[in-house]
Amino acid sequence: MDRVAAVEEKLDRAIDEAPEPGVHLGPEQPLKPGTGLRAGTAVELFEDQVRSRVIDVVSREMKARNESFYTISSAGHENTAAIGTLLRPDDPCFLHYRSGGLFMARARKVPGYDALWNTLLSVAASQEDPLTEGRHKVWGGLELAIPPQTSTIASQLPKAVGMAYALSRTDRPNGYPRDAISVCSFGDASFNHAAALTAFNAARWSQRRGRPTPILFVCEDNGIGISVETPSRWIESSVRGMRGLTYVRAEGEIDEVYDATQQAIDTVRGRRKPVFLHLPTVRLWGHAGSDLEAAYRSRAEIETSEDADPIARNARYLIATGAASRDQLRDVVERTRREARELAPKAAATGHLDDPERIVAPLAPLSTHEVSRRVSESVPDDATRAEVAGRQLPEAATQPGSRTLAARLNAALRDQLLRHDTALLFGEDVGRKGGVYGVTTGLQATFGQQRVFDTLLDETSILGLAQGLGLAGYLPVPEIQYLAYIHNALDQIRGEACSTSFFSSGAFRSPMVVRIAGLAYQKGFGGHFHNDNSVGALRDIPGLALAVPSRGDDAVRMLRASMAMAEVDGRVVGFLEPIALYHERDLYEDGDGGWLTDYPAGDELLLPGEPGVYGDGDEPLLIVTYGNGVRMSLRAARRLAEEGVRARVVDLRWLNPLPMAAVREQAASAEQVLVVDECRSTGGGIADAVVAGLAEHGGQARLRSIRAWDTYIPLGPAADAVLLSEDDIVTTAREMGAGRRRRRRRGR
Asked: Taking a C-beta distance cutoff of 8 angstroms, is the pair 245, 200 a contact?
């Protein structure tokens, strides 16, 4: 017999054969003395469980008709409905893909929300799905305070902790009530994931540091992860040893699950501390629709799980206690099945997204006019700036152009914290120390520990914190101390932050400006962790804007744009700061001060698509570069000029999106284009994209690129052997010029 049909038949039989008592409870009567679960609530809870179950059944039927595309069910996990029943609609939730019961119970509390229909639209990948518009099957909804999660394997836990941190603050910009709690659910296999362990640690660390951290961790423990069994009592024995994390186990009859859940939620809400709710479940019908469970579980094991079906158990218990009659529960099951089967083909007929522009529209919006207006309208007055700075304003320095990149960034961050009252600056060592390179010096003393603060040493936690704060209405500015360190936590950007708008059609956003110290050429302190020249993994993330300023004045304008992009459009912006240029003063000769800059006027900004151009516009050689390459290329261009070779330098400034329209315009008047890419030769930088973008548009210029060696960067002088140099640029430019002269001689 088909296993789905077998479970359905057992549920029907459990209802039909359950003995009825002589008396029936009223809706407000408890199921038994001492429990908080009333009969009316228990029946509603059962209805939510059935609705979740029917979705699982019907989605498989739709899949068999090619009407759905993703069947991973909540079957066996329906007791999560107790959590949804006890939470409030304004408690933000980050849900496991098997939390269907919780979702249905939560949706019941939101008037006008049709959970059955909306979920079937999601199952069908329908363009009418009110949240994703067919981009994925998710649990979520803005009115439900449930951001969408896609195939989560613990990656949502760090941002749930970030949300708990946001809920502990007193300046709540998003309107969450002061006693709201953050909730995240996950499976027993995901419990072992590094992201989960990071989240548990961060919550405990925060609580230990005296910061209220109201988060409910919900482990839906079915004892198996796809085909790998979880060791007996592994979850309980592991969590009970974690000081600072209260453990609550919820099992037994539905009123016992309900009461334990109530205890856990009350503890989080009342004491503002993290609680781990352990909910034993069973998994029915394998991991997903394509999973052949019989390949790794015996028939006896499968049938044992089926016999433990929580909905059948709850039906028998509700009838036995007098909370409901057989006819009442039978009607719930039959009516819900009938309604779902009537709605399924209608949901499938609503159509799918087929317009690429509509599909990607929520991914990387750029409201140029609104961003510019936000910058111009948010300029703080000079009196306020002077009071906050406690010294001379940056643009009124005694000598024009007398500040380094690091100094200009420090002043810009100070102004941004004034411009944006929800902006928060945080990371490792950014507070008391002022950053490893002094870029955040004095900011904590000026704005206080509520707005500029140090975090634990964990990039996943830092980026999770940023997401939670962003979802809660703040404007986070997290710092990742070195570029190499962001790779430890890249999924928090790739799989979570940048996907939020995409999978919610812009309803939810994770705005942030991630400051990253990076790139190579750092002297006296290096090696591959502190001299990392790989940006390929960042450029590969859909929707991530990537700014790379090389000069102090550009950094100020680009930071203004980045902050406004995050605030206006909810963008995730990577702001990559070249370490080697932080304190650089000179350009051509020692003491010339050529790399020092003025502080730009308060309404000036640089948006994506606006490169910097150094030259007259008619030079035959165009050098396209960024970051450290800008200074090297300008120095090389001066040497080439002494040899009669005129070169123009284009600073891309933004590596994602690349300003290709502007580059093509500059290349149109050039005879040769040399792309100077300081990153690794194989997929590390931008050379491939720039050369392809020029070649595919039929330009006449000869194209060439030079790049660093494809290697980790060694320590000390050995680094110079594998990185690009000024000499490399000059030598390559000479070769390109010699080749042109030879072609001309042959033509004559």
From this structure: yes
